Amino acid sequence: MDNMKDKLLEKYLINELRNDKEEAFSLLFKSWYTDLVLYAGTFLPEKSKCEDIVQNLFMKIWEERKTLSIESSLKAYLIRAVRNSCLDEIKHGKVVRNYENNYKLLYDNLEDTEDYILYSDLVGHLQAALRKLPPPLKEAFELSRFEGLKYKEIAEKQNVSERSIEVRISKALQFLREQLIEYLTVVLLMLKYVSFLW
After folding, report:
1. CB burial class (10 A; 0-12, 13-18, 19+) of residue 39?
2. CATH fold of 113-198, please?
3. What 8-state DSSP symbol labels residue 71?
4. pTM higher than the cut 0.70
5. Rounded to whole angstroms, how far apart are CA atoms 105 and 110?
6. To 5 degrees, how large is the angle CA 178–CA 145–CA 124?
7. Which residues, 6 or more positions from 9, have their beta carbon under 8 angstroms from its beta carbon?
């Protein structure tokens, strides 16, 4: 979908939200929930916290729908809101200061909308590649990279040896790299955001 169509759709959704249209809210939620949870996962290792942050954002959008003010694009607004909430969670949880200092500086210096959209597109390609993985490989990869489980914990969940988990994650990584090769330029640009692939 080109930029003009995106802008028209965003304007339509915002207007419908202000008119209390639950269908617009549902469409917005379904379109963005998974991507935003994955994005939050680049800051926070706990999937449950990522989900809470995104759910709270959508609750806030619905509660404030009448006065919703979005100066940039809706897409950039959503991603920026999640980023800010994640950084607040990092401060609140007293996570290692090096993480906060390095990554907050990095994200504050992004070229706002274009970089956020670039990230979102990459996440979309990654999700599509993940769906092609055999279930045992997909589960092992997601438990490792998205939920932060150790190989031993994953082995117990999948009822296999740790060595089997090493092999599964290695195969998953190789497959994902092959699937994303046509987006190599994007991957290199955004490598700092998706370090869980390497």
Report:
1. buried
2. Arc Repressor Mutant, subunit A (1.10.10)
3. S
4. no
5. 9
6. 55
7. 1
